[in-house]
Amino acid sequence: MLGRALILVAAFSMGMPLSDPGQDKLDSVAVPVLVYHRFNPQEAGPTTVKTSTLKSQLAWLAEHGYKIVPLAEVIQFVRDGRPPEPGAVAITVDDGHRSVFTEMFPVIRQQRIPVTLFIYPSAISRASYALTWDELREMQRSGLVDVQSHTYWHPNFHREKTRRSPADYQAFVAFQLNHSCAVLEQQLGVQVNLLAWPFGIVDPELEQAAAHAGYIAAFAYTGGLVRTRGNRFAIPRIAVSDRDRGEALSRLLHPAAERATP
Predict the structure, then answer these.
(1) Mean of the per-residue pLDDT values for the chain?
(2) pTM (2 decimals)?
């Protein structure tokens, strides 16, 4: 006992950091956030997952001890260090394709699975491929679906920055971030404070714009797992394809870099 006390005193006097077991345990927690786009009953594509594949992926997660949690729990983890329950994984869906309602929604409603939709509202009830406002409202009423922002019309910010003046670009970014919130809140009566970056494009200037617009967190498209004390305006997500089944899905949830982390 005396020996340990002397070691601690020596470490303190030499400026050596003392390990915090609680923080070490928190740093070991890593949460996958999955991102889908479109669904189809028969055909897969680069961003399209067959409905049967979605069902098999959800079954695999349940069989292997994963628990699908609301995205809000991931935000709390990043912002406040409050870890979600063991095996937590969150599901997000980008854009607002109509198959979210026709294919995905019946599956998650049957299984009572929470999902966050990142929507660019310029297409809603306008584009033939997109959801309608009534479909979004019906999904919201289920209590399973949260709707958040994917900017107003899904721009490529890299391209816009090269063709606009600095002042015009800043105004354009502000419009995309603010008008999306305004329309979603007006149409759906929700609080919009989360953002998914179109094409995963994000940089410090865009992060600052998101904070100024009132977002509390934003999501990238880089792959990898979410850890506490990370950049809350570039939270990683994992893109899921139709090929990601069984062992392939396991590799997504446990990438090599993460497996090597002590």
Answers:
(1) 89
(2) 0.87
